[in-house]
Amino acid sequence: MKTIVPIGPYHPLQEEPEFFTLTVEGEKIVSVDVQVGYNHRGIEKLSEMKTYDQSTFVVERICGICSTSHPFAFVQAVEDIAQIEVPERAKYIRTIIGEGERIHSHLLWLGLAGHFLGYNTVFMWAWKLREEILDVMEILSGNRNNYGMFKPGGVRRDIKAEDIPMVLKKIDSILPTLDMLKKAVLDDPVLQARTKGVGILTKEAAINYSALGPTARASGIKRDVRKDSPYAAYDRVQWDMIVTQNGDVFDKLVLRVLETFESVKIMKECLLTLPPGEIDANLKTIPPGEGIGQHEAPRGECFHYVKSDGTNRPVRHKIRAPTFMNLPTYKSTVINQTISDVTIILAAIDPCYCCTERISVLDTKGTKLYGGEDLVRLSQAKTERLRKEMGVK
Amino acid sequence: MTRDEILKDLKNRFKDDIIEVVDRSAKRVYVEIKPESLKKVVLFIFKDLGARFNIASGMDDRDHMEILYHFILEEINLLVSLRVKLKKPNLEIESLAPTIEAVNWIEREINEMLGINFIGHPDLRRLLLPENWPQGVYPLRRDYKEWDPTAIRDRGVS
Fold first, then answer.
1. Residue A99 pLDDT > 90, yes or no?
2. pLDDT at A347
């Protein structure tokens, strides 16, 4: 007997609210269809009516969590048209902002993943740490999100020398707790039983879907724009690309935790070696031509294509967020998995959590309706059961 | 292979298919090809050279439509953008979705936004536009006119 499970449709926080139609046989998922576009705001069209300076702010508001990724890619696309070099100091400041965002985004994901799996302590700790990073971002940019730091040709705001010791101290203060979280995640037998071998994305599938960011790196693909196509100050500091091999939820979890440490490393080194000088190349006119900007956002490569005709507005501005490439991989990860694992598989590529909160399950007779809370409870109950079976407290 | 070798190889291998090669900078190359040769050039770049498909971007250029297929060769840090120009009103091109899964969604998007038909696409439904959007109205075309008198789509535009 086949049952249709609708998940969705929408959450206003992420750029791609989605609606999943899962067809299940008993507990097992046999097919999946994804529908997006519920919050399509026509930003590509809107951008054609805005000047380059205005567009930077418009694209910053595409996503609330990774709000600096889009301006980062966009300003690089504009700089690619004009073929100009950004001052060294501006490159470092961009890197600091980009990595701060990655830390808070990964911590946010870790907390929610913990919540879905019934580890509310992980959720509390991760979000508490995230607050520290948001404070750091507030010191550096004046805002906890939507930093408004970027402009074509440089950055809008300098980092003051007197702020740096305080920022470094705050970043250092999260490391012991982060380390504890890492150990807790890696050593917990129940967590391993719950996530290992679940929702595997094979390397071949990841290549065919052109998956990006942590989703691709967890499947053993060395793919990171920061290494492949270095920009800003990423080739000036020492850091490692984290790659794991199995492609399951556990590997994605480990990868994000380890990546947070690398981001801390990059951020600290940039702050310590921040070169003096100008922060703006004073880009006045954009010549005709076309340019492409890429930035490794927390979820993968963010891609902007801009075509200019020499006026102060772009003729065409194509935006591609990483989830656009990562989302279709569900077709290969969700099949043959059970409903209680769906929440975490859907969350594993770090799309919007929203969709998982709005899940509703209807049995064939239409008599029983589960809401998003029930599905989270289902997922948490499975962990609880495993915990008892394995004799872990 | 180095960047120059790959470009030379591409030019030799597809000399009848390539119309123009614009060597823009160390990281960017724009290659204009004939629409009918798209599939074999893309398959060579994606499968044989092992490039990653970034995205495709379509644009209305008044007398023709232009589609750019962006591929990045990660080992040598080179972004190859294949440019295809479709003369109006024959807006049709072969779909790449049956062979490359990553192209599936963006072809659906270009189809609804610009009205280009991708022949052989397995599932050419709408991706982003709502169901009540009228057939044959393409929002990213230059001649797009507001069709809904109640819609306010220009808020904040000056």
1. yes
2. 75
pLDDT at A85 over 70: yes
- Radius of gyration for the alpha carbons in chain B, expressed in angstroms and rounded: 17
Q: Is residue A203 part of a domain?
A: yes
**Domain ranges within chain B, ordered by starting residue:** 3-94
Q: What CATH number is associated with residue A204? A: 1.10.645.10
Mean pLDDT of A9-34: 69
pTM of the model: 0.90
* Top CATH class, B3-94: alpha beta
pLDDT at A353: 38
Q: Where are the beta strands (DSSP E) in B6-101?
A: 18-25, 28-33, 52-60, 64-73, 78-87, 92-94
Chain B contacts to A (CB-CB under 8 A): 25, 27-28, 30, 52-55, 57, 59, 68, 70, 72, 74, 77, 79, 81, 100-102, 104-106, 126-130, 139-140, 153-154, 157
Q: Do A80 and B129 touch (CB under 8 A)?
A: no
Q: Is residue A37 part of a domain?
A: no
Secondary structure class of B82 (helix, strand, coil): strand
Structure tokens that stand for A79 in this block: 């700089």
Q: How many domains does chain A have?
A: 1
Q: Does the pLDDT of residue A202 top 80, yes or no?
A: yes
pLDDT at res. B153: 67
Does B129 sit within 8 Å of A37, measured CB to CB? yes
| Angle subtended at Cα B129 by Cα B68 and Cα B145, rounded to the nearest 5 degrees | 80
The parent domain of residue A189 ranges over 43-325
